[in-house]
């Protein structure tokens, strides 16, 4: 059973409900959860770190970073099980199919009444600072801030939550792996994540696949 790390709940949920259509985000996340539990866990962990980073770089919009990260992989609900849940490394052709989840996510959200930041996190979370990412191939600061934050939090979460074909890693291992590939990320944001993670380690609150943050969108029916 996973251990849940609590955060201030009612304050967050009331603020988020005033900011966007909470029911839409909650419903989309429920679709992800039904489709694949590992993707759902990864999304909650990513949302936690996107929120913490956004409090540093874009505090007024930090709630939207949480919501966007929670549903950043919504396009994966259309993905074949062989690719989504396979226990061997993907071939080049399969990786190309995997990339399609970004386009699928864009199409799912394009007509929904959600803020631009939420949609942009879905659109840009696989862009890389050196221009090697997808789908747009944007480089450096041409990647919107929300995309640069999402790239860092998404990668970190993917490493510590593991994949069907890859063992999960500790938080420090994940940071070290990302620092070896520092050209892929906004260096300032990666350094901020390092500080956040070190504080969590020192306070015995480090996140892992078995010790996840509380999903701040739970019990939305109780929000008035």
UniProtKB/TrEMBL annotation:
Residues 17-209 form the HD-GYP domain. Keywords: Plasmid. The lineage of its organism: Bacteria, Bacillati, Bacillota, Bacilli, Bacillales. SMART domains: HDc (SM00471). Signal peptide: none annotated. Pfam families: HD_5 (PF13487). This is HD domain-containing protein. The keyword Nuclease does not apply. PANTHER family: CYCLIC DI-GMP PHOSPHODIESTERASE PA4108 (PTHR43155:SF2), CYCLIC DI-GMP PHOSPHODIESTERASE PA4108-RELATED (PTHR43155). The keyword Metal-binding does not apply. InterPro entries: HD/PDEase_dom, HD_GYP_dom, HDIG_dom. PROSITE patterns: HD_GYP.
């Amino acid at each position: 059973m996973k251990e849940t790390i609590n955060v201030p709940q009612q304050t967050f949920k009331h603020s988020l409900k005033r900011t966007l259509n909470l029911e839409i985000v909650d419903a989309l996340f429920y679709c992800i959860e039904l489709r694949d539990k590992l993707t759902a866990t990864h999304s909650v962990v990513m949302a936690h770190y996107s929120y913490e980073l956004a409090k540093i770089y874009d505090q007024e919009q930090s709630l939207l970073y949480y919501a966007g990260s929670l549903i950043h992989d919504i396009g994966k609900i259309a993905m074949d099980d062989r690719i989504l849940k396979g226990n061997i490394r993907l071939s080049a052709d399969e990786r190309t199919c995997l990339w399609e989840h970004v386009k699928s996510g864009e199409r799912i959200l394009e007509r929904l009444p959600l803020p631009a930041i939420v949609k942009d996190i879905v659109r840009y979370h696989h862009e890389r600072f050196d221009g090697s990412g997808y789908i747009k191939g944007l480089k450096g600061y041409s990647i919107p801030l929300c995309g640069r934050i999402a790239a860092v939090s998404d990668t970190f979460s993917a490493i510590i939550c593991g994949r069907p074909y890859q063992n999960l890693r500790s938080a420090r291992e994940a940071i070290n792996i990302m620092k070896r590939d520092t050209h892929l990320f906004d260096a300032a944001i990666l350094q901020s994540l390092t500080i956040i993670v070190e504080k969590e380690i020192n306070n015995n609150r480090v996140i892992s696949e078995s010790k996840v943050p509380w999903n701040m969108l739970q019990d939305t029916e109780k929000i008035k």
